[in-house]
Amino acid sequence: MRHFGHIAPEVRQRLFHQEPCVFTAESPARMLSVALGATLYSPATRPRLAEDIVKQIDRGVVSMVLCLEDSIDDSEVPGAEENLVRQFGVLADGCPDMELPLLFVRVRTPEQIPDLVQRLGGSARLLSGFVLPKFTEERGVPFLEALTASEAASGRRLFAMPVLESPDLLYRESRVDTLAGIFRAVDKYRDRVLALRLGVTDFCSSYGLRRAPDMTAYDVQIVASVIADVVNVLGRADGTGFTVTGPVWEYFRVQERMFKPQLRRSPFTPEAEDLRNALIEHDMDGLLREISLDRANGLLGKTCIHPSHVLPVHALSVVSHEEYSDAQDILRPERGGGGVLRSAYTNKMNEVKPHRAWAERTLQRAEVFGVANEDIGFVELLAAGLPG
Q1: Facing residues of 238 across strands?
Q2: pLDDT, tens digit, for every residue of 52-105?
Q3: pLDDT tens for residues 289-324?
Q4: Which residues of the chain does CATH 3.20.20.60 include?
Q5: Contact 233, 179 (CB under 8 A)
Q6: Which key words are in the record (predicted)?
Q7: What is the rounded CA–CA span in Å between residue 221 and residue 150?
Q8: Which of 228, 241, 270, 320 is the most exposed place for a label (fewest CB within 10 A)?
Q9: Secondary-structure class of domain 24-317 per CATH
Q10: Which residues are annotated as a binding site for Mg(2+)?
């Protein structure tokens, strides 16, 4: 797998100063946690699930979650489990040499983990791990214990992606204790926890809220405060933190607008005006703004429920040539003592010690998403990755 691997090599060469690296499901956890990108969710009830998974490869998808939880009715769970096992068998038999996306299963109970691993049999080799819902210390530890036991029994490396969506995390009076408990749980199983996912839809539901397509999660103050505290406790750059992924974007069709589009004309050439109009028409301007705010607030990657959201997430994850230049300058060995230097682009100050953690994270992102050429921005990356 590689990001933007679905576009022609000669196009990638034109777009990238440094192309995205190749990785597999067996790559180091540090790399995979950064490489998740837009993680596409799909109900496990889909009758052509195996076919759908293969189809997403041509859309640039590198990670998927097959959901047995909130996306399906309670009565559908047994049938969804049977379908999941059957579809994994189809993939294992029909695509033995194909590099599939990283596949995770979102379960409801800890008991489902060993049961599914056993039922999958040999096709469990296609499984990268499990998504653990409504994660707190008390609720989450049994999931992590079940995952660890299933890993030992199957001989297959399995990762956990806890979803932070419990009301206890949202409510002010219980938030600090809940965050401390979550940290204890994931720290104990650090080698198994690939990333932490934010369940913002559940946060909103606790107050009867739903953000409109022209508002981001950061415009809903109760949600923004939780994101800030999660990053504060669980996303630190001192070696104790985890990758925290951005919240889901719920919209993929135009709604009646109250506010002006949030996508400026200036990055779009006259030839790309149709692309700008299409993004606005499908409420993508709000998504692009939220992805930018995710990055500014320390989140990486995003939960997606529609294939059209994948390319914007990946295009805005590519490291710009300017960011790359700054990061390299900051991390030069001769800068180990600190100091301040003018950026190569002569438009900012790079202070070596305070900016070191940012530079290290930027180069990790550059490895898996690539570095754009000097004259390439997100508009060109979006246009190049669109189908047909």
Answers
A1: none
A2: 999 999 999 999 999 999 899 999 999 999 999 999 999 999 887 789 999 999
A3: 899 999 999 999 999 999 989 999 999 999 999 999
A4: 24-317
A5: yes
A6: Magnesium, Metal-binding
A7: 40
A8: 270
A9: alpha beta
A10: 202
